[in-house]
Structure formats: C-alpha cells, structure tokens
Amino acid sequence: MKKLDLVQIRKEIDCIDSDIARLFEKRMETVSKVAEYKKENNLPVRDKQREAVVLDKCKQRVQNSAYADGLRKIMAQIMDIAVEREEQLLG
C-alpha cells in the first residue's frame, strides 16, 4: 500500500481551490449580466423561487450524496454574495 504524502495531498487541494476561485469569478461575472437584465426589465434582485430551484438541485449535482448538504450550504452563501453584488451594481 502506498503511503500518503500530506504535502502532495495539500498541493492537490490548492489546485482544486484555484479551480473554485476561477469558477467563482466566472459566476460573479455572469451575475453582472443578470443584474443588467433585471435592471432593464425592472425585476427585483431577489428571486426566492429561483434560489429554491438552485438549492434543490444540489442533491443531483453531487455524485456522493453525503456531500449534498455541504454543497447546499455553499450555494446558499454564494447566492447571498451574488445578491449583494447585484444590489451594488443596481445601486
């Protein structure tokens, strides 16, 4: 059996964290487009129905169901941050 190397495992986590950061930035850039659309169409920032759909999809988006609640928490935080960003953009 191969011995675990903590340094190597942490490097792998660092790479994953970089991917998460890149995807977060991409999501926030897309949120700017959502804000622009909402402004043009006089829509409210918060869409509770859409948020519920996103959170409900968390179970489908993970292969290991043990991680679904964690993903749901992360997505709720991300959506809160997105709402704050939209509010900033809409002024």
Task: Based on the model shown, name its key terms.
91 residues, mainly alpha, 78% helix, elongated
Topology at a glance:
Elements (H helix, E strand, L loop, with lengths): L5 H35 L7 H9 L1 H4 L6 H23 L1
Description of the molecule:
The chain is mainly α and 91 residues long. The protein has one domain: Chorismate mutase (Chorismate Mutase Domain, subunit A), CATH 1.20.59. Helices cover 78% and strands 0% of the residues. The chain contains 4 helices and no strands. The radius of gyration is 17 Å and the shape is elongated.
Give a short summary of the structure.
The chain is mostly helical. It has helices spanning 6-40, 48-56, 58-61, 68-90.
- How many helical stretches? 4
Structural class from helices and strands? mainly alpha
Shape: elongated
| CATH H level, superfamily name | Chorismate mutase
Q: What series of H and E elements makes up the topology?
A: HHHH
Here the CATH topology equals Chorismate Mutase Domain, subunit A
* Domain count: 1
Cα-to-Cα separation, first versus last residue: 58 Å
Residues in helix, % = over 70%
- Largest beta sheet, briefly? none
